[in-house]
Amino acid sequence: MDYKNIILKKDGAIGILSINRQNALNALNTEVLSEISKAVDELIHDEEVNVFIVTGEGRAFVAGADILEMKDLNSAQARRFAQAGLDVFRKIELCEKPSIAAVNGYALGGGLELAMACDIRIASNYAKFGQPEVGLGITPGFGGTNRLQRLVGIAKAKELIFTTDVIGAEEALSIGLVNKVVEADKLMDEAMSMANKIAQKAQPAVRYSKVSINRSAEVDIETGMEIEKNLFGLCFATEDQKEGMRAFVEKRNPQFKGK
Ligand code: CAA
């Protein structure tokens, strides 16, 4: 499929979705959100893709939702706009394939919300993170009040959202907002290396692990452990479980098939 604001590539088992609307620092308007949604569908349905990376072209990851598109919305239109962002980010979060945000620059507002919907965040040392919304007269609307507190704790989330402070990559690392910080020119290598490491494991087990982690974060621990037990059980219906354990016993590397 052809995209106007997205570059979608594949490198072996790794999909790379890069947002490319550089004249607006990759700001998310309705068209960009719709293209991200379609690109994520392509990645989900592509059987060769095990893991995908989300990044931005140019000097921004994403500088937020598009302020020009939002400025004259009424409440009903704004709720629809928020729903569009929430839906596509939830699709990334809930799909079984792991995602890595390679944060190359500004990740503000909707940009930080997009990065937080990914499973893992790797930041360039130039990356900047923040939720500037209350300075524009709005609340975060693409999941920021929900996901930021889960990642950094409620007090830090309130501080960042109420003050709109923009923080650098090292501070983001120190509060648990990103997994890793690397030199800007190493960002994609590092993201690819982590993606390849994940892509070489047993994919049913990787995907069930993601489902179990996500679901158990949202339910009580008894329910979470029930989900974990059932997914653990499902692994034993896969060829990769047989291969993984046989390879251990035979002292060789496993040859996983992804089923
Ligand atoms: N929406 C629309 N356009 C944007 C944009 C955004 N979020 N962010 C940047 N742009 C545009 C600028 O208007 C500018 O366009 P022109 O060249 O046509 O004037 C272009 O991108 C380059 O930006 P700047 O000239 O401002 O670049 P800079 O280096 O001086 O500043 C910046 C960079 C600090 C990121 C600044 O652009 C900025 O503050 N952007 C807005 C950040 C923001 O407030 N994001 C949150 C949006 S609200 C939101 O996301 C709500 C939600 O949760 C759903």
UniProtKB/TrEMBL annotation:
The keyword Lyase applies. GO terms for molecular function: hydro-lyase activity. Keywords: Lyase. CDD domains: crotonase-like. It holds the Pfam family ECH_1. The keyword Iron-sulfur does not apply. One of its GO terms (biological process) is fatty acid beta-oxidation. SUPFAM superfamilies: ClpP/crotonase. Belongs to the enoyl-CoA hydratase/isomerase family. PANTHER family: ENOYL-COA HYDRATASE, MITOCHONDRIAL, ENOYL-COA HYDRATASE-RELATED. This is Crotonase.
